[in-house]
Structures are given as C-alpha cells and as structure tokens.
C-alpha cells in the first residue's frame, strides 16, 4: 500500500510541476524556510494539508514580509577607478552585455497578514487568514538591447522585441478559509482552501513588441507593433488621444475574485511527502475604472522606402510634407484604442513539492521544490527553485532553521543562496524573524533578498 501511495503521489507531482508548454524556467528567489518548520503554523499558508506538530490551536498576529530582486549587483556594474583623473568610470557596454546575458528583471513583493487562526479536532483541522499583498515587477526585453548595440543592418534581418509582462503592479486584499482531513485508513492528509480576493489597484503592460525587418539591399524598412496595457482600481486613469490624467478615489474597492489552494501530505514513518498548488482559479475581475489599451492597427505594417535627404531638404529648406508623412506613419503605428470593459487578471500560481525526515520532534531535514507561473498556469513564464533545509528544536524554547537553494536560470547554475530563521518559543508565544533568501553574503554581490517577521500564539 505504501508503495502505491508513493507512486501515485510522484505521478501527481510530475503532472503538476512539469508543464511542457512552458518557456525555459527562470530563477525564483526564495527558500520558504517555514514550509518544513517543526512548530510554526506558517507552513499552513504554503500547504493547507500541513499543521504544526503536536499543536491544536494557533493565532497568527500581524506578519510582515518583503522581498526584492535586482537585475544586477554592484559588482556587475563593472565600475573602475581611474587614478589619473580621480574619477570612477562606468563601462556602458559591460552593463549592456550583462543585461543581454542575464536579463533585466526587477521584482518587489510585500505582504502583511492582518490576522489568522487555526485549530484541530480529531482528524480535522480548520484555518482562517486575512491580509494584503503587493506584487510588482519590471522587465527590459533583451532584443531591444541587441538592436541598440548591434543594429539591424545587413541582410534580411528580423528582430523581435517581444516580452511578456514588461511591467506590472498589483495590490489586493484577501480572506482565506481552509480545512484538512486525515484519511483514517491511510497515512494521508488532504487539504483545501478558498481565497476571497478584493483588488485595490492594477497597472500592467502585458505585451509589447516591435518587429523590424530590413531588406537585403537595405532599401526598405518594415515596422509593426503590438501592445496591451491594463489599469483599474481606486486610481482612475483617464486616457485621451493626447494625454493621461489620474484621479484617486477614496472608497472601498469592489474588484472581487477568488482562487483555491490544494494540498496533500503522506506520512510514512519518519518521512513526510507533501505537495500543494496555490492560487488556482480565475483571479480578480477588475470593475473599478477599468481600461484596456490595445493597438488601433494591430495587423498594420508600415514600410519605409528609404529617406531621400535631397527631397527633405529641397534645396536647403526642409520639406515639411515629407517630414509630416513619416510622422503620420509612426503615429499610425502606435495609435491605440481604449476599452473600458471589466477584465479578469490571474494571480501567480505557485506549487510546492516537499520531502522531510523528522527525528524525535527535535530535528528535521527537508527538500523543497518551489515553482511559480507568473500569471496563472497558462502563463508562458515559469520560475522555480530547489532548496535543502535543516531545522533544530532546542528544548521547545528555540527553533533554528537554515537552508540553501540551488537553481538554474537557463544559462547558469546558482549554487549558494542561503537563508536562516530564528523562532523564540516563550510559552505559547512564538516570535520569529527570517532572512529567508540572500543571493550572496557579500553586499557588493547581493541581487536578491527575502525578509519577514511576525508573532504567533500556539497552544
């Protein structure tokens, strides 16, 4: 029976964690140390089938979490000091090469958990949590840098500048209600959670592409563009043909949505295997001041048959008709349509696959695979990470945890991304602080970090 359970669980893991449609994976900057924690109820937020060992009731007081991912570290800038001129020299070509090689991704996430609680009765457990999250990221298409540094001359070249989610900012509140059940005849616990969401503000550029093609004889240049932008929430963005204006509104938002979390855990002696998928569902429907901006001539291609300087100058004077003609062509290419219909926007879907070994309730070692689809499971961008962690419970008054993640970002492996946490157990009160992920112990090489702290009451 146990062999069948393991085989079924691994098959389910493979079906969820591996998606052949996805683009090459990117690195996910987190260790999620508390997933395998011995005492912390924070693990329940990452898998609704998990509950603190030997505990029957907990209250989560406000928890603050923040993460930052930079596109490059201080060392990556390649700054050099010139003693002859007493100045620091910036090598722009070096910076552009770094971005082309490693990409340019700036990410900021923040979360405040207002209040949560959970309790266990026999084989059942129940949980509730509420709070607010903010997600923000920005990305520079590397194709744009290739054009800037290498141009588009010579031969019949075609460069695509397309990139998914050029920039996005999403803020929303949530309330979640979950339950889990241990199957009496099997060492398996299953859990589920419903998340009610209310969007506060969204501003995104989901698609931006500019295609250029140069003829072999370089006599013509063909351009076409495609883009999509969304905005909604308490800041009303008024868009006209020539201007943008912003009008903040003070009222309770009504951009409602929902997602579901699913989890499973199998206990086989001292070994625990677990899997969870978070934020499955349609996401938030944005109704407050929604706008969607798309190209007016999405399929239109404008051809430029070269520039006749003689005709433009016209014997020493600029031919305004010729200049206006080129200006009209460019304006036609970037002309847009504004739609004010409500729209849905999916949240990042996360998956966790964990395995741990626990010895006498005082020591635990674990492995964790973390994956994230940036915009629901249909997203083309998948980010992932792997981590190993150890957790030591010192006489039920102190829990110390440490982890290190290793990942592959389609170009190189990153082997050293440590994290550590400290939980002080003072009677029923848990006070914890964590540097969950630090890309380098040297400040000059630091590119990513994830920090959080909070208080629990556990009985």
**DSSP helix fraction:** 10-25%
* N-to-C span: 34 Å
Assembly type of the shown chains? Answer: single chain
User: Total number of helical segments?
Assistant: 6
List unreliable stretches of 5+ residues: 9-25
Q: Taking Cα atoms only, what radius of gyration do you get, to the nearest Å?
A: 26 Å
* Class from helix and strand fractions: mainly beta
Provide the β-strand percentage band. Answer: over 45%
- What is the count of β-strands? 26
Quick one: overall form? globular
Sheet having the most strands:
22 strands, mixed
Mean pLDDT across all amino acids: 79
In short:
By secondary structure, this protein is mostly beta strands. 13% of the residues lie in helices and 55% in strands. Helix 3 (92-102) packs antiparallel against helix 4.
């Amino acid at each position: 029976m146990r062999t069948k359970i393991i085989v079924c669980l691994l098959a389910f893991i493979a079906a969820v964690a591996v998606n052949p449609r996805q683009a090459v994976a990117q690195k996910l900057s987190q260790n999620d140390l508390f997933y395998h924690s011995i005492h912390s109820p924070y693990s329940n937020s990452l898998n609704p089938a998990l509950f603190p060992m030997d505990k029957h009731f907990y209250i989560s007081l406000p928890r603050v979490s923040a993460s930052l991912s930079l596109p490059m570290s201080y060392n990556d800038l390649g700054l050099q000091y010139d003693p002859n001129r007493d100045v620091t020299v910036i090598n722009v070509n070096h910076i552009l090469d770094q971005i082309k090689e490693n990409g340019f991704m700036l990410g900021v996430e923040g979360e405040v958990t207002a209040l949560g609680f959970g309790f266990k009765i026999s084989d059942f457990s129940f949980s509730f949590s509420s709070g607010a999250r903010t997600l923000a990221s920005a990305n520079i298409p590397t194709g744009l840098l290739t054009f800037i540094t290498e141009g588009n001359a010579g031969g019949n070249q075609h460069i695509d500048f397309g990139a998914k989610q050029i920039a996005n900012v999403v803020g929303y509140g949530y309330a979640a209600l979950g339950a889990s059940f241990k199957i009496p005849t099997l060492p398996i616990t299953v859990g589920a959670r419903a998340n009610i969401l209310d969007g506060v503000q969204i501003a995104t550029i989901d698609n931006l592409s500019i295609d250029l093609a140069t003829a072999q004889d370089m006599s013509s240049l063909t351009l076409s563009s495609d883009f999509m932008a969304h905005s909604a929430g308490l800041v009303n963005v008024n868009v006209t043909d020539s201007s943008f204006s912003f009008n903040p509104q003070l009222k309770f938002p009504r951009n409602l949505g929902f997602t579901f979390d699913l989890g499973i855990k199998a206990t086989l002696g001292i070994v625990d295997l677990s899997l969870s998928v978070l934020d499955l569902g349609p996401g938030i429907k944005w109704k407050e001041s929604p706008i969607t901006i798309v190209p007016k001539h999405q399929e239109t291609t404008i051809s430029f048959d070269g520039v006749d300087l003689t005709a433009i100058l016209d014997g020493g004077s600029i031919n305004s008709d010729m200049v206006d003609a080129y200006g009209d062509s460019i304006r036609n290419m970037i002309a847009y349509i504004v739609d004010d219909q409500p729209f849905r926007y999916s949240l990042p879907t996360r998956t966790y696959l964990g395995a741990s070994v626990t010895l006498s309730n005082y020591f635990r070692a674990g492995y964790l695979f973390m994956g994230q689809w940036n915009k629901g499971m249909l997203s083309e961008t998948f980010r992932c990470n792997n981590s190993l962690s150890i957790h030591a419970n010192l006489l039920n008054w102190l829990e110390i945890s440490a982890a290190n993640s290793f990942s592959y970002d389609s170009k190189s492996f990153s082997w050293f991304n440590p994290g550590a946490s400290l939980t002080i157990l003072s009677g029923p009160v848990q006070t914890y602080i964590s540097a969950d992920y630090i890309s380098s112990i040297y400040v000059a090489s630091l590119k990513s970090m994830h920090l959080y702290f909070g208080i629990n009451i556990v009985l």
